[in-house]
Structure prediction request, 263 residues.
Amino acid sequence: MDGTDIRLSQLYNSESGRSFITAFDHGTSLPMPGSPHPMTVLRKIVAAGPEGVLLSPGLLQQGGELFARRGAPAPVLRVDWTLLDDGAKRELGEFHRVLLDPADALAMGAQAIVMYLIGRPKDGTMFADNVAAVATAAQQARRVGIPLIVEATLWGLRNEDRYDPTHLGNMCRIAAEVGADAIKTEYTGDPGTMSQIIESVGDIPVFTLGGARGSEADVHANARGALDAGARGLIFGRNIWQAEDVTAATGKLLDIVHAEAQK
Prediction:
């Protein structure tokens, strides 16, 4: 076991073996007009007690003191950038850029890093460059001992169905093959197809993302479906920090991830 394995293991609850991470990195890529002060939201997220918080370099720099105590959530750092809004992508084009390397993230105090792997964009060159960037980061991350979570999705403009299990499975397998230590991806909506995707990447842990804000019933059903399929945890964002009560929303999902796993 090396530093990468130790840091990844520390993201999991010791009793359930699962993890709940709140994603709050959306401000780098999505328009967020009228949003409350980001530090106000971040304080609520941290106080609610997830295993980790996914955030941008700027927010970690501003809010580092929130993580500088024993028992605080682990800071998980977004180290790349892409356009997520379909309107902007169709107008400006599809792009992916690396913002900082794993050594910089480690120096900032990150417990793990996250990078996009965007499936089926219109431009094949973009996809090739994205794969190469993730593979390079995987090797750099292993050298400094920080885990790389690859967010494998079907967010390219050639996709009509971003939950397509065949294409989504291909993206997760590519992520595994180029060196991901863990994978963040969509829940297909069906435990059967999701379990096939999870099985196809071997021993690499898979987390599912929450996506756009949905009804509480749908969010919880998707969480249970993903976990029943074998996901090791959830990385949910807008369904937490856009909720009226961040603590309550987090608590309900923590119960699904951990308490229900032990029943």
User: Anything to note?
Assistant: The chain has one domain: 3-262. Residues 124-144 form the longest helix (21 residues). The radius of gyration is 17 Å. Strands lie at 19-24, 52-55, 74-78, 80-82, 96-98, 112-118, 148-153, 182-185, 206-209, 233-236.
